[in-house]
Write a structure and sequence with these properties.
It is built from nine helices and nine strands. The chain is of the alpha/beta class. The protein has two domains: about 110 residues, Histidine kinase-like ATPase, C-terminal domain (Heat Shock Protein 90), CATH 3.30.565; about 120 residues, Response regulator (Rossmann fold), CATH 3.40.50. The chain has a five-stranded parallel beta sheet, with helices on both faces. Strands 1-2-4-3 form a four-stranded antiparallel beta sheet. Strand 8, helix 8 and strand 9 form a beta-alpha-beta unit. The structure holds adenosine-5'-diphosphate (ADP) and magnesium ion. Magnesium ion binds next to helix 1.
Length: about 260
């Protein structure tokens, strides 16, 4: 990030080219003479270059010094490249810089390549749980979010009725009590919020599983929403995974909560 910021600062005066390249290079004895931090062997080389203002040799000689900066107070701390240098040291790597005033600058970062085969750990994510036609009402006053919720859950095998107000949700349940397996409702909605909706739904159909979704970090805890009659609180934005896992937990009562 610091290399990118420095390049941007260097090219502020006129448009230019910012380039990031990656390659593998073989370091030999000759190369080590000019790059004493490196040893013979293979390195992954990350190169970051710009066509900005460049530096004179006196500046190049000091760039990795902590607190060396040519920038105004508040613009630069002079710590960026010192930190980059430290990071490369801890990787048993190295860094070099080429620069000419008016032409631009290139930083090469050398990371030693592991010579042993490494076995990539298996990060097979658990499959996203799917539904079997269970009926869900999805309530969100933002049509786009209600639509997204419906789309996600429809694709996962649920049968989703989407509504954009508490009144519509109450009407749907009132018309066919027992028809729905779960209600997912947004918290913050005009006229009637999700908590009041939940309270009224439970009067119509006691035991109806409810999930509350909320976009605010807020003060609502999982415990509080359970006291209010909800099984779970689902933070927005929710993904297909977080949504389907919550739905699955609630429908199969494997909440593991509390
Ligand atoms: N890409 C670059 N082009 C021109 N000068 C640079 C470049 N990167 C770093 N420098 C010079 O090195 C100095 C130190 O950089 P750095 O350690 O990142 O601190 P800072 O950016 O806070 O000044 C900068 O003030 C600038 O003079
Ligand atoms: Mg910087």
């Amino acid at each position: 990030m610091n290399l990118g910021t420095n390049a941007w600062h260097a090219m502020r005066e006129q448009p230019g080219t910012f380039k990031v390249e990656m390659g593998v290079i073989e370091v030999d004895a000759d190369f080590v003479k000019t790059h004493p931090d490196l040893h013979g062997g293979r390195y992954a080389r990350l190169s970051v270059s710009d066509t900005g203002c460049g530096m004179d040799s006196a500046t190049v000689g000091r760039v990795f010094e902590a607190f060396f900066t040519t920038k105004a107070v508040g613009e630069g701390t002079g710590l960026g490249l010192a930190v980059v240098y430290g990071i490369m040291k801890t990787h048993d790597g190295g860094i070099s810089v080429y620069s000419h005033p008016g032409e631009g600058t290139t930083f090469h970062l050398y990371f030693p390549v592991l010579e042993n085969e490494t076995v990539a750990p298996e990060i097979a994510a658990a499959p996203i749980p799917r539904g079997q036609g269970e009926c869900i009402i999805f309530v969100d006053d933002e049509t786009a979010l209600a639509g997204l919720g419906k789309q996600i859950l429809d694709r996962l095998g649920y049968q989703v009725t989407m509504v954009t107000s508490a009144a519509e949700a109450l009407a749907a349940i009132g018309a066919q009590p027992g028809q729905f397996d779960l209600v997912i409702t947004d918290l913050a909605m005009p006229v009637m919020d999700g908590i009041e909706l939940g309270r009224q739904l439970l009067q119509i159909q006691p035991g109806l599983p409810l999930i509350l979704t909320t976009g605010f970090g807020g003060t609502l805890t999982a415990e509080k929403v359970r006291e209010l009659g909800f099984c779970e609180i689902l933070r927005k934005p929710s993904t297909a995974r977080t949504m389907s896992e919550a739905v699955h937990r609630v429908l199969h009562q494997t909440t593991g909560m509390g």
